[in-house]
Design a protein that fits this description.
CATH architecture of one domain: Up-down Bundle
Number of helices: 21
Largest sheet: 6 strands, mixed
Shape: elongated
Distance between the termini: 72 Å
Structural class: alpha/beta
CATH topology of one domain: ABC transporter transmembrane region fold
Helix content: 55-70%
Strand order of the largest sheet: 6-7-8-3-9-10
CATH superfamily of one domain: ABC transporter type 1, transmembrane domain
Length: 589
């Protein structure tokens, strides 16, 4: 247990160190905040002295110095106003530091999403990743903001008030200094108790964000299968856990402030008793006692403030830990230093002895071999889970093979830069993706410098130009998130137009026409046939009627090619493909 606490403390120190590293570029603003904090505290501590002097001028019958009191009141008002201005400037600087740090963290997280292997994104709930980028970074920013503010003003306040108290009365100052540290020990004890709960709370927040994001995005499926009650039950289970750890974390942390305030009450009581005795003995004036009580409260105030923001600081540390664990994920294997930029592509592909699995304990593709001549159309068919889409992932280097070689025009794809390799493919997937922008921007996604005429021509080839022209704003129509204001078929046609605009030397069509009606599919197939002339093309399709014209049909099962040949050759063999094909048309025969 002691070792675990030691490791946890070390991890917290490392986390704080990294947060400060992100704040380091804003050192000028941090220094300015420190200067403004000193000025704010200095003026704030001048006011009690002036108040004490005013009280001494009003003590005694017939000895009230009205003119002197008026001057002191004006001076106190000026002091308070200037103190407030410097406090505002200090808060402005700390805000700039905190929000600048949050911006940098989010920038690095977003950049990290582009450098980690695709298996990292695929293997984690997207809602949890979003929670780290949004909620956890917000927590870090709030904690940093509170930390800097309390650190600067608190340290300066403690030092200055201690100096003033020693100047007024050394013995009473010692009483304050001896009793006050008790609040620090109380706060430290409670912090250790609440730390575990805050980490659990942050983790559960990510879990519930992932669950909500998943089910909101798939509400049609949830309703179609009557899953509402079961999803509600699952949500309530996660929400109950979040409530439990949230209550515990807040309960433990909320003990800190009242406990430290109790200690501070003891300090005030001791000061009052000691000050009264000093006044009776003639060692202090009434005004000095009032000033000293004010300073004692000012001295203990930073301790109260720190314990008051402990929940926020703990949440910030837990959030920062999740953020840095994301940033520490290993990047995808970089391209070799001598990796070539793939220029002219003929489209000859050689796959030899390739083996691959998503997890080591479950083999998927073993000793896969394939040789494709330039311009050939390769159709890949087979039952679900046989490795069809996996082959596409390997060709595009979304995943790296475990063994074997994949070569294009005699060059290993691992000796070519990823970016230049992927630009040689045009890919249309079953799951169409559009983003919140105009139709023009979505079609020109792979070719940002495309002209309107080029975009319109690509749309005509994809048989969606007439639909776009009927929209009120035409190609300037803004598509909502994920193309929600378009049908599934229209979204897929948009993705097809996007590829046609890029005009790549090789094509990958993974169920590219699965959401298109039969009549439009015939037209799209004609467009694809024209586009595929002279281009190496890979076609993954479950509707076998769409691949009859392929030069080679690869029949996959359990990660291996069990049959290959043209449609006519495979039908003549009356093997696995023959049975698969007839199973689709048995009812129409």
């Amino acid at each position: 247990m002691a070792q675990k606490k030691k490791l946890s403390g070390k991890a917290n120190k490392e986390t704080i160190k990294r947060i400060l590293g992100y704040a380091a570029p804003y050192h000028t603003k941090i220094l300015l905040a420190l200067v403004f904090a000193i000025l704010y505290v200095a003026l704030n501590l001048t006011a009690p002295i002036l108040v004490g002097c005013a009280i001494d001028k009003a003590v005694g019958v017939g000895q009230v110095d009205f003119k002197g009191i008026l001057n002191l009141i004006l001076l106190i008002a000026a002091t308070v106003i200037c103190s407030s201005v410097f406090q505002w400037l200090m808060n402005l600087c700390t805000n700039l530091v905190a929000y600048g740090t949050m911006r940098d963290l989010r920038r690095d997280i977003y950049a990290k999403f582009n450098t980690v292997p695709l298996k990292f994104i695929d293997g984690r709930p997207h809602g949890d990743l979003l929670s780290r980028m949004i909620n956890d970074v917000d927590s870090v920013g709030d904690g940093l903001l509170q930390g800097i503010t309390q650190l600067f003003s608190g340290i300066v306040m403690i030092i200055c008030t201690l100096g003033f108290m020693v100047f007024i009365n050394v013995y009473i100052a010692l009483v304050v200094v001896v009793i006050t540290p008790l609040s620090m020990f109380v706060a430290a004890f409670i912090t250790r108790m609440s730390q575990k709960q805050f980490r659990e709370q942050s983790k559960t927040q990510g879990e519930i964000s992932a669950y909500i994001e998943e089910y909101i995005g798939q509400q049609k499926v949830v309703k179609a299968f009557g899953f509402e009650q079961r999803s509600q039950k699952s949500f309530e289970e996660i929400n109950a856990r979040l409530k439990e750890c949230g209550q515990k974390s807040q309960f433990y942390s909320s003990l800190a402030n009242p406990c430290t305030r109790f200690v501070n009450g003891l300090v005030t009581t001791a000061v009052c008793v000691a000050g009264a005795v000093s006044v009776i003995r003639g060692n202090m004036s009434v005004g000095q006692v009032v000033t000293f009580i004010t300073y004692a409260n000012q001295y203990t105030k930073p301790f109260n403030e720190v314990t008051g923001v402990i929940p926020q600081l703990q949440t910030a540390l837990a959030g920062a830990d999740r953020v840095f664990r994301l940033l520490d994920e290993p990047d995808q294997k970089p391209d070799p230093e001598n990796a070539a930029v793939f220029e002219d592509c003929k489209g000859r592909i050689d796959i030899e002895n390739v083996s691959f699995s998503y997890t080591p304990d479950k083999k998927l593709i073993t000793d896969f071999n394939l040789h494709v001549r330039p311009g050939q159309r390769i159709a890949i068919v087979g039952p679900t889970g046989c490795g069809k889409t996996t082959m596409i992932n390997l060709l595009m280097r979304f995943y790296d093979i475990d063994s074997g070689t994949i070569m294009i025009d005699g060059k290993s794809i691992y000796d070519i830069t990823r970016s230049s390799l992927r630009t040689k493919y045009g890919m249309v997937l079953q799951d169409s993706w559009l983003y919140n922008a105009t139709i023009f921007d979505n079609i020109a996604y792979g070719k940002p410098d495309a002209t309107m005429e080029e975009v319109r021509m690509a749309a005509k080839k994809a048989y969606i130009d007439s639909f776009i022209e009927r929209l009120p704003d035409g190609y300037d129509t803004v598509i909502t998130e994920e193309g929600a204001n378009l049908s599934q078929g229209q979204r897929q046609l948009m993705c097809i137009a996007r590829v046609m605009l890029c005009n790549p030397p090789m094509l990958i069509l993974d169920e590219a026409t699965s959401s298109i009606d039969t009549r439009t599919e015939i037209k799209i197939q004609q467009a694809f046939n024209a586009m595929m002339k002279g281009r190496t093309s890979f076609i993954v399709a479950h509707r076998l009627s769409t691949i009859r014209e392929a030069d080679i049909i690869l029949v996959m099962k359990d990660g291996n090619i069990i049959e290959q040949g043209s449609h006519a050759e495979l039908m003549e063999k009356q093997g696995f493909y023959h049975n698969l094909y007839n199973s689709q048309f048995a009812q129409t025969v």
